[in-house]
Amino acid sequence: MTEHPLDLSARTIDSGIVDGPVNRITQELSELADGVALIESFSHSVVVDTGESLVVFDASGPASGRAVVDSLRSWSTKPIDAIVYTHGHVDHVGGSRAFAADADDRGHPSPTVVGHERVLPRFDRYELTRGYNRVINLRQFGGAAAAVATEDDRPFLPRGTLRPDRTYRDRLDRRVGEIDFAHHHCLGETDDHTWTWIPAHRMISAGDQFIWNFPNCGNPQKVQRYPIEWAASLRDMAALEPELFVPAHGLPIAGRDRIVTCLETVAATLETLVAEVLEAMNASAALDDIVHSVSVPPETLALPYLRPLYDEPEFVIRNIWRLFGGWWDGNPARLKPPTDAAAGAEVAAIAGGTGPLVERAEELAAAGEFRLACQLIEWAAEADPESATVHGARAAIYLARRAAETSLMAKGIFKSAAAESEAVLTGEVPEATMVLDITADQA
User: Fold this and answer.
1) What is the domain range of residue 372?
2) Which of the listed residues 233, 267, 301 is the one where a domain comes to its end?
3) Model confidence over 375-402: pLDDT tens digits?
4) 126 in helix, strand or coil?
5) 43: cis peptide before it, omega within 30°?
6) What distance in Å separates the CA atoms of residue 317 and residue 270, rounded to the nearest whole number?
């Protein structure tokens, strides 16, 4: 049995020392309070016993749903009244098929699925962008080359995933058995997020508004995120002075002062980042200037629950720009730029071929100047896309850059770039693998 999650979170927050994974995927169930249990998975499922039935927050993902149900049933065999989706990401809803099968096997009514009204259009959007979403998730979590998913026509949202049948807009109050639930909509990582106040336990189910990493508010491959509203939701939660706080990734937290400190620190970090970006935008700074001048203090990023191991501040800065300033970055040459291939060919011609570009890129990479090195090697690859010399260097440079990065998102994209070049060298499409354990690159 692993260390109890409440003991681990208290020790980690109070000491400021992370000596092991805080996003654990064990499929183990831990009782957090009388009638409250957590199953640590990807994502977690949180279970509240209401007397005669259970309410479950999140169904985990397609690959883990069955294991989550098995762990839950080792704790209680009561009917499941409802599954509450904290939001519509696949790792939170894809396991719902296993819950439906469990209800059918036991002769129980199928659970009511509760979610914000925007979960439904999210599911529809996943169908429209099934190929794109598969590609970006393979790239983000496994570092696979984009080409591996192009011929896969399976739906991104697994068939049989339960759709919400009880939706709401701003707030939904429900009483199930002996327990009241106050579901609140908020913007943050998604536009369909629900966090829930459970006064009987002075508890909050927080979903992904708190993930024991720097907030996932800048993901470079996905839709708009909302840092101002995200911070406001954390302050709304803190104002309730909860005694038990349970996110969908990472560890639960117990103790009012500890919880409030964590929530207010994350909120203040987002608010400060937004304020500094807006100040620069209002002073007519271009995005390039802002990215390289605005930062989060190292001591903040060293906190156990704010480390940039998944998303990172630089990506959030770009997302804030997109939110307020649109897609153009302020450089007039990039308003209507040439094709990448044309730019690469022209630079190579000026340099006297791709050889000097490759040589200089390798020199810069060896010196740790990866931003410049990657730009040069990209020009070389655009100018000579079949060159084994270019792609050998490109793969090595991106693998070296990956090793120097902290966030899983950067690591995944750079590994994907290396995989693309390795495919050119071998003539084989690399096997598609998706590593969903976001702690894998945090050790």
Assistant:
1) 338-426
2) 267
3) 999 999 999 999 999 999 999 999 999 9
4) helix
5) yes
6) 10
